[in-house]
Amino acid sequence: TSEVGQSHLVTRETKKIPNDNQHVRVSSIQSEEEKEKSNNCYSIGSSSPKAGLFKGMAVILHERGLIQESKLRAQCKDFKCAKGATNCCCRRVLYNQPDFVAVESNLERICKARGFSVLFLPKFHCELNFIEQCWGYAKRIYRQYPTSSKEVDLERNVLSALESVPLDSMRRFSTRACRFMDAYHKGLNGKQAAWASKKYRGHRVLPDSILHDLDGAHV
Predict the structure, then answer these.
(1) Residue of 100, 130, 116 lying closest to 22 (CA atoms)
(2) Of 21, 42, 52, 187, whose Cβ has the fewest other Cβ atoms within 10 Å?
(3) CB within 8 A of 14, min separation 6: which ones?
């Protein structure tokens, strides 16, 4: 799954959470979201005609004591702020507020309540996410099934293809992803990381002599 081009993994934490606690945590998430909404919207319980409506960035900034910033334009043209700018528009000022920067996404909050961790990976680096190789394996199996346009056949074939990925293959894919992570951590570029991953196939990490090996191979 991706959000704005960013890949993420959802992993199960080792600590088990009883069902009752799950419901409690989900309820607390909802209450936090309602509280956040009430801070950014006019009070629903008031008699004001604006009750429940979004206050607007200028009002929110003014309430935070950022009087001068609240007088700025709503956003820069085409939402493209100047490089390095922090107070060019209301949108940019709010974007850089600590509580806006540190807030967890809905995905993180909901997964955390159910005992999962969400690990965000760099954009456009499928080699770091071994689930991509699992998808590739499943799609190869899927293409071997007879062609059909019936929804029941499509669903059955998809589930069968996904179930066909062996656990040993998943482990190998995970090891490959770890090699790429270690390669980038050691300062290798994409071409060098691909070469090292093939040379040290089966290794979870690369040897400390990898830079010397690259020089010897003229990579």
Answers:
(1) 116
(2) 187
(3) none
